[in-house]
């Protein structure tokens, strides 16, 4: 798995080193896929995009670049060598704070209950006896990824008020799990006493909710929700954006946006695969939708 991660990182580095094609000469539409899930699963989930988009956009091919972590895609977007990606709000904030003109957020998902947000949820092993935040004093907390909204930024900003102390003083130790999927697996193994991941918060915990990392893991059969308990849930977080390279040809942007807006009805299976669960569809957004997260990232991390 480590070897695959290195290869994924190398592929992102290679595309980042290349000069971006002029919009009118674009032959290869390049999709960045953030880390946090098994690479083979990510490639399989996005294969439908590789199959459909060449005809829609008039390009010769669509290339998929699964990064080893969130930052691999972020750097590709900043370098102008990726044309489209789906980011968390904090990942977009990082891009915006480094170069507000690098990408445009155009769409975000709508939950089955009509909400345009989701939650950070903290889970622990059910047999650990941990049921509240107070039970975690002095224990080891895992975060998903430094650039994850639900897996790091929002918990780091909101947990201190919930626990009544700075995170570094309350918990005995903190660390990163190497993405959402691996973090939950590390909690199950007992390497973290609890960990933060993302979920729609709609539906039942026993099912992994209707969408999110837990739902994807349940659907793949790699986690049994009966082994976990939810300890904490954040305030509502804005659903992450679909972003496109700002310098992309206007006509191509419009064709891509129209394709995505229609996808929930034109190909529900593809829509569910790339989004990781059940959603109603997409709605239009712009940078202002993420201003609170941009401000939070600027205050907490600085970039």
TrEMBL record:
This is Phosphonate ABC transporter substrate-binding protein. Keywords: Signal. PANTHER family: PHOSPHONATES-BINDING PERIPLASMIC PROTEIN. InterPro entries: PhnD, Phosphnate-bd. The gene is phnD. The keyword Signal applies. Belongs to the phosphate/phosphite/phosphonate binding protein family. Residues 1-23 form the signal peptide. Pfam families: Phosphonate-bd. Gene3D superfamilies: Periplasmic binding protein-like II (3.40.190.10).
